[in-house]
Amino acid sequence: MFKAITGIPWPGPVTDMGTAPQHAPRSGATGGPRRGRFENETGNASIEFVIWAPFFLFITAFVAEVAFVFTVNASMWNVSRDVIRRLAYHQIAPDEARDEVLRHAMIPDAGYVVGVVEDLETVTMTVSLPVRNASLLGLVTSRFDGDLTVTLAMLREPV
């Protein structure tokens, strides 16, 4: 009965349950011989790669771009925290704050805008960077007009 339906002889009883019986390869969708011009399947993996590779490369580039922007933002917070601490302890003058931010920034020539406001008790510093300048490839950030902004305030130490 098995041979009548499939055209393949019955392999006999399976003695080892870990292996499957070996069958002859099927050449057509119904088990019969394949006919037509699509008989040769060589190159199918290449076609699939050409179709899917750009999609996966774009997703990978997108993730790398977003991760880099978040890394630049975290770097801005770290540098700003260090510089405002030095301002609050009177170790640097407010005029030197921009130079300190640029010296320790992740992307030194990206166009940071640094503002420092001092009064008798507090010092407030704002560091901003256009999102377009905080990118690796410009895939994601070229479509945004916003800024990455860090604003910190700290009590000044008495002189």
Structural descriptors:
159 residues, alpha+beta, 3 helices, 3 strands, 15% strand
Number of helices: 3
- Taking all Cα atoms into account, the compactness measure Rg is 33 Å
How much of the residues is beta strand, in percent?
15-25%
Give the oligomeric state. single chain
Strand order of the largest sheet: 1-2-3
Topology order in helix (H) and strand (E) letters: HHHEEE
N/C terminus separation? 100 Å
What's a concise summary of this model?
The protein has 159 residues and is an alpha+beta fold. It is built from three helices and three strands. It is elongated.
Structure description:
The protein has one domain (44-155). Helices cover 36% and strands 15% of the residues. The chain is an alpha+beta fold. The protein is elongated. Helix 2 packs antiparallel against helix 3 (97-104). Strands 1-2-3 form a 3-stranded antiparallel beta sheet, with helices on one face. Strand 1 and strand 2 form a beta hairpin.
Q: What is the fold's blueprint, element by element?
A:
Elements: H1 2-6, H2 44-88, H3 97-104, E1 113-118, E2 122-130, E3 147-155
Helix pairs in contact: 2-3
